[in-house]
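Honest question from a wet-lab person: if I give you the sequences of every part of a complex, can you actually get the arrangement of the whole thing, not just the pieces? Trying it with mine:
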Amino acid sequence: MVWAMSGREKISMDKATEEMFRRARELRIETVWDRLEKQQPQCGYGLLGLCCQNCMMGPCRINPFGGEPKKGVCGATADTIVARNFLRMVAAGAAAHSDHGRHVALTLLLAVKENGGTDSPEGRKMFLGADGLVVQSSPYQIRDTKKLKAIAQRLGIPTEGKSEAEIARAVAKIALEDFGKQDSNPLRFLRAYLNTKTLEHLEKAGLLAKVPGWEAGVLPRGIDREITEALHRTHVGTDHDPMSLILHSIRTSLADAWGGSLIATELQDVLFGTPEITRTEANLGTLREEYVNIIVHGHEPVLSEKIVEAAGDPELIELAEKYGAKGINIVGMCCTGLEVLMRRGIPIAGNFLQQEAAIITGAVEAMVVDVQCIMPGTVDVARCFHTLVIDTSPIATFPGAIHVKFNPEKADEIARKIVRMAVENFRNRSAHRVRIPKVKQAGIVGFSVETLIERFGGSLEPLKEAIVEGKLRGITAMVGCNNPKVAHDMNHITLANELMKRDILLLGTGCWATAAIKHGIFLPEYADTDNVGPGLRKFVKEWNIPPALLMGSCVDSTRILVTASRLAEDFDVPIASLPIVASAPEPMAEKSLSIGMYFVSSGITTHLGLTPPVLGGREVVKILTQKLQEIVRASFIIESDMRKAARAITDHIDRKRNELGI
Amino acid sequence: MSEGSRLTIFINPSRCIGCHHCEIACAVEHSKSGSILSAITEDPIPLPRIRIISVGTQNLPVHCYHCEEALCMEACLAGALFRDRDGAVLVDSNECTGCMACATACPFGIPEFDVLRGVMVKCDLCPDRRAEGKLPACVEACKTGALQFGSIEELLTSTGWSRARDGVGDERA
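Yes, you can. This is the full assembly:
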């Protein structure tokens, strides 16, 4: 039945968020929790995935109680409708991640363009001084040559005797080909990064499914192709078989995992640097009262990195001081926040459900937003304060916001303009309305695959040994969103603690990671609490790491996949044989279904803490939670009670350990 | 009036999935145009006479029960409330002054004030549809069987709530 939250129940386990929620009530400002309450009762057809509006013979819905109507106008059954809706959600999530990856690949090309990044005659003129010498380079440069060469070697690109620019162009070319190529071969990045035995298994997964048309397998051929085909299959009168539709969800999510998201992560490391271990802070207490506060929010670092740079401009700092501020303070939010946290140690103010709360502090001069997971409601909240919401992406426009559309070719200029707007806005602040919660927590962050390997002495062997000897029971990937249908961060922290108690190492990304750093889980001393089991405690003390490792933003869930793939190589097994489980304790976005599906497709059973809209299709539920075990050797666990979820995850890990004979 | 001829809407809350279709259909039925595509642009906007409320995890459609002893009729200062042949309690909006004494009297708080028209509105069991032998709009819109329409005797028999009349209800539907 429909979930409903009484106004008297806790909306968050985070003190800062609770404080700001009370403040919002005082000021009569509507927040996400108020809007959720107004949506009650939410439509049962939608909750079950039983409504279809894919064509103009509809909308159609199926009676979940079994009476009429049992079919849509075209004759589609409940399972067909549920499977089609699910595939469209996975495709939307893959589209979001992959567009991010495309953006980074194009930016890498820009970084190495010979004429400084512009092809127009006027642009060329700008880059030439009187003596004909280049006076300004591209706004972007390659920051990690070593990483670039490592990627090139994986892709089979010769690097000896080649310039950095030549190698980068070749890598970017292959990346962009993976988006648009039309042949039937699997993605180049997938073939380069996925370990051999997993690849071999996926090649025959189509046969295991026993569905006509899938004999050639489930490996993605082109990132954009699979997303487009998802729309085609779900067009009225095309694919109606639930298993066939779920198989295409597998293919589409793999195009995201080992395509769009992986390209984003890997090429971002080339452009902005591979993360190294650093100490930083999180929560609304990272806003500073006497400073110009700028929040970078959304998902892509291509602009947010430039905002951070611009904030260090002496001219702008001087201007801030002129307006009475002590300086400029940049903090992050959501995955844009995690990107600059991983690479530059920039504090993160919060995760998805804290974006309105941050504005309600009254201390934010500007919230600079790019794409994904930015609620349009932030503009409404900002109207109650002096905060400027500045939208920057050409594909994400917010009514009521200030539009400063970003162009990578003019990145520095635009970033400085934005920072200047924020600085000038400081004088509009009402000091008496500032309420920054004195809540923040430190954490050790910055675990890329490379950092992990370096930390373990050059390979993942110590991790393997710890798993074999039982010091570590296994690993869980913790990913995903916030959802106001559960108390904010509660599922994240409860499940994390239950798993760490059972000696399970956590690797985390996204809004889970932000929740965990706020809770102190990324401090090495957290291993001394009762929430960490003796084996895990021993392991992390031996290697001087926190009991959970922050690996980055949503697209950086691929760092966890790459780690799993390398570990699988060490064990000489497919990923599916490893004692690794994934979880999205508070899933919200379509991206979380693509991530969940791509973990499952890669052989990692995945827990979801809220039910996706699939329960109306019994056959679909059976496929997702059971039959996929026969095809990709992983499936979904849907469980909203975190203690039961921890037991289910642990049971699964123990079964894998038994199968490995350890 | 004889008991057998009184018509009513039976509510089975366990069948309600909170889709609000009954509300939409009711508003459309009480619009000028009778079509949802244009009803949403009417001025004044048509109002539904049925609401779904959430009680914990349960959904409950709430509307006028057309009580045998209708306290609203007794309370009406303008004499605008009357009962039709099927037992439905109706409001003559020409007579209604919008004083809302009926709302105070109603133990369920059903009558609503239409601020744009200045009168009370509540369920009328869709008299035009009844005259054509159709179901009330909300019942027709309900696809899961949470709302059923008929005479009290028919409903008690078909839903299996035979002990409801004695004040002891158990679901057998």
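Two things worth pointing out. The radius of gyration of chain B is 16 Å. Chain B has seven helices and eight strands.
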